[in-house]
Known about the structure:
This protein is mainly β. The chain has strands at 3-6, 15-20, 25-32, 37-42, 48-52, 59-67, 71-78. Strands 4-3-6-7 form a four-stranded antiparallel β-sheet, with no helix packed on it. Strand 3 (25-32) and strand 4 form a beta hairpin.
Amino acid sequence: MGVTIFPNPVARAEKLNITATHKPLETIDIYSIGGKRIVTISSIGKYSIQIPITNLTKGIYLLKVTTVAEQTHFRFVKD
């Protein structure tokens, strides 16, 4: 897997850090645990990004990260 996220769980951090090691990030989607898309960030073109999450309520979220080479899914918790 060439993508990492941190911190997880997100307690005091205001941003979620996403880093790709092999190919640049293309698209990031954040979904509620119920499957509703909340955030989409596209045309990133970088290997690393910080996503502000202060507007998200406490809970479990699903994250879909797409690079040129792969699509990876994560679950993260906002405390």
